[in-house]
Amino acid sequence: MQTSRIILASASPRRRELLERIGIPTIVVPAHIDESVLADESPEEHVRRLSRAKAECVAAGMPEGRYFIGSDTVVVLEGRILGKPADRAEAAAMLRSLSGNRHQVWSGFAIHDRREGRTLDGAVCTDVEFRTLSAQEIEGYIDTGEPMDKAGAYAIQGIGTFMVRQIHGSYTNVVGLPLAELLDALAELGAGYPFMNREQQP
Amino acid sequence: MQTSRIILASASPRRRELLERIGIPTIVVPAHIDESVLADESPEEHVRRLSRAKAECVAAGMPEGRYFIGSDTVVVLEGRILGKPADRAEAAAMLRSLSGNRHQVWSGFAIHDRREGRTLDGAVCTDVEFRTLSAQEIEGYIDTGEPMDKAGAYAIQGIGTFMVRQIHGSYTNVVGLPLAELLDALAELGAGYPFMNREQQP
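YS: structure for the whole thing
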C-alpha cells in the first residue's frame, strides 16, 4: 500500500489503531468542524456528511498529501442518536436504555483523493445487542472512566465488551471505521491494499 | 467479582486478555490434553468436551482454587473443522477456502466449581463472513506470521481483522471465549460478575 499518502482526519485513537494494525500507517490531523445533527437528517446522512466534511476540511488546510480519510460514528437507539454523555448521570441513563436492547451503530467514511479531485464515501450499519446490565455493572463501568468520551457511553473494543452479547454486521464499524468497505474504496481509488507496498508493486 | 478464585485452563493469551480487560484477573494453567476430534463428533460436541476436560484436568492437578475455566475454539467451513495450519502452504489453502465465504466459529466453555463439585458448560456459534482476498493479501498476511498458530489460520482481533466483512453473533466468541454467556454462567454459580469485588459485596 502506498501508505505515505494516507491522512486520517480524525482524533480518534481507535481509528488510527485499526488502520495501523492492518499495516496502514497514518498521519493524524483532527478536523475541527461543527458536529451538530441537522433537522430531519437521518443517522446515515449525518455520518456521511460529517465524514466528507472532515476529509475535505483537512485536505483544504494541508499543502501536501493525496488521500484524506474522514469518519464519523453515531449510536442510534429507536431512531434517536445518542451522543457523548455530559456527566455520570447521563452515562448511566444511556447505559440503562441500551441494557437488554438492540441498537444500531452507524459509521460513515469518506476518502478524498486530492490529485483526482474525487471523494468516495459510504456508511455502514451494525446491529448491537446488549446483555441485561445490573445497576452495579453500570456504576462499575462508569467508575472506569471509559464511557465519558464515547458516543452511546461505551467502547466495544475496551472494557465495554462485557456488555455486548451479539453483533450483526461489521465489527470494525462499531469500533469506528468499517475496514472491509474502506479497503474496497481504497482499491477503487487505486490506493492499493494491505501488504502491498511500493517494492511489491509491478 | 471474587476474582482470586478464577483459574484459566488455557494457554491462549487472547482468552486471558479478554478476561483481564473486563476486570477478571486470572491464574493461567495450561491443560495438556489430547485435542483430537473424535469420529462422528460435531464441532459443538467437540468444543464442549474439550472445555470440560481442560477445566477438570487442571482442577485435578491443583490443590487450591475454586473456579476453573476451560475453553476450546474451532473454525468450521462447510461442516469441516479447520485446525492450525502445519505450514505456509496449508495456511494459504485455508485462507483461500475462507476467502469470499461464510464460515462458523464455535467456542466451548466450561466452569468447574470445585467446592460445589459442579461444572457448567456451553458452546456458542458465530457466523463470520470474509472479504474476497487477493493472492497478495494472503501471502502478505502469512508473512506477518500471525496465521501459523491459529485455528483456521487467522486471528480476528489481530491483523486478520482486515479479512472480515461481517459477523453474526458473539464477537468475543470468535476471539476465543464468549464473554456474555460466560458471565451468565459465572453469575449462576454465584461467582460474581464484573466490577463486583469483595469490598462492594453486601
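YS: worth flagging: Chain B touches chain A at residues 18, 21-23, 131, 134, 136-137, 139-141, 143-144, 156, 158-159, 161-162, 164-172, 179-180, 183-184, 193-196, 200 (CB under 8 Å).
IM: good catch. Also Strands of chain B lie at 6-9, 27-28, 67-77, 80-82, 102-113, 118-130, 164-169.
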